[in-house]
Amino acid sequence: MGVFKMPSLGADMDDGKLIEWLVAPGDTVTRGDVVAVVETQKGAIEIEIFEDGVVERIDAALGGTFPVGAPLAVIRGAGAPQDVAASPQPAPAPKVKPAPPIPAPPSVAAKSGDFRASPAARARAAELGIDLSNVSGTGPEAAIVLADVDRAAPGSRKPAKQGLDLDAMRTAIAAAMTRSKHEIPHYYLEHEIDLQTADDWLRARNADRPPEGRILMGTLFVKAMALAAAKVTGMNGQYVDGVFQSSQTVNAGVAVALRGGGLIAPALMDAAALPLDQVMAAMRDLVKRARTGRLKGSEMTDGTITLSSLGETGVDGMTAVIYPPQVAIVAFGTPRPVPRVVDGAVLARLCAHVTLAADHRVSDGRRGAKFLKEIDTLLQSPEDL
Amino acid sequence: MTQDELRTAFLEELTSVAPDIAAEDVGGNDHLQDDLELDSMDVLNLVTALHERLGVDIPEADYTRIETLDKAVAYLAERLG
């Protein structure tokens, strides 16, 4: 018997609004099935289940907002006897309407910083210059959550656009990047990579194929980064509770910029093991779902390294900010033809500035350099990717 | 197909690939990448959709010929004509 709880879809998530159940009591579920859809600051996220079994009971009502960890449903494990005498566990009351604000006692308010408040709420309050002693909390035990700070913020918030609230997404980005810059001692390495061979190969390959069979330079970047991350240690994994946990698979976060502002980096699972065509298909799928706001919870949480590409019409390079709890991010600048010395002669070659930002708690410059050089080497033999 | 039908088809596929762009906001000379902020993935998805809908396989070398709505309509008319 397992309790299906509201998952944390990122360090900056306080709660989520349940907008769809895809299962009903009696349904059989398998690990990895999408069972519900939750609305977060990063749009609607499909929530997967992580055990096999049968849905015994649905506890959480649609439309309710539930904090991370709140029980949403009960799952009877495979082979477990039916729970005949269903325990009369009361369903949690959804926070459809915020509870009446509980004024903080003056004695508490006098002590600065002594409020129960979520990290995201504190970050938002600091950013907006809001005194938390003036904010009423609606979270557990009257803790101040992000929505409370936003309500207290001066100025009205713009309405949601196409299912994505870009203001809310900006808040989430701000919280994650502030945490990154607070906690992660970044170091940076830059390398110019000659992409002429890769570009020639790609053009020849795509010329024979209809549009649906073509691949992009960005696909080569993802595959090369994934292979290099699988080979050079200290780049691929997550840093959790003071310990770096290296990952066996490379779940490559692919940064997708949204028109109107906003950025999301869902993970392309096991990218190092996929052939190029499948990497491309997975990228198409991720970008499409990122734009329409239908990503999976695991794609939001299981990334082990991120790639940010500035595209075909951007600028030369970027020093990116690591997405916690990951420990490295690779930024590819816009490829341009530049004069480059090849075998003693100056030739016009298509090149890109590639910048690594990595976590000094886990690796140092020598290892980072090895990683970047490996990406370079792999891109010189695109036919082997 | 008439030029108007091609224009409608192109705009429908464009706004399908980029659902946050409204067809009425697209000017005839707006550049897909510089003005409408399509990235290379969006452009490829648009070319793929046009292939499926109109049967016109646009090679990479011709991408600059569909970089605005007006150019694309002229190019598609030429290819279909």
TrEMBL record, chain A:
Bias type Pro residues, positions: 89-102
Chain ranges of the Lipoyl-binding domain: 1-76
Molecular function GO terms recorded: acetyltransferase activity; lipoic acid binding
Disordered: annotated segments: 82-102
Domain Peripheral subunit-binding (PSBD): 116-153
Cofactor requirement: (R)-lipoate
One Gene Ontology cellular component: cytoplasm
Lineage: Bacteria, Pseudomonadati, Pseudomonadota, Alphaproteobacteria, Rhodobacterales
InterPro entries in the record: 2-oxoA_DH_lipoyl-BS (IPR003016), 2-oxoacid_DH_actylTfrase (IPR001078), 2-oxoacid_DH_E2_comp (IPR050743), Biotin_lipoyl (IPR000089), CAT-like_dom_sf (IPR023213), E3-bd_dom_sf (IPR036625), PSBD (IPR004167), Single_hybrid_motif (IPR011053)
CDD domains cross-referenced by the UniProt entry: lipoyl_domain
Listed name of the protein: Dihydrolipoamide acetyltransferase component of pyruvate dehydrogenase complex
Assigned protein family: Belongs to the 2-oxoacid dehydrogenase family.
From TrEMBL, chain B:
InterPro entries reported for this sequence: ACP-like_sf (IPR036736), PP-bd_ACP (IPR009081)
Limits of the Carrier domain: 1-80
Protein name from the UniProt record: Acyl carrier protein
Native source organism of the sequence: Thalassovita gelatinovora
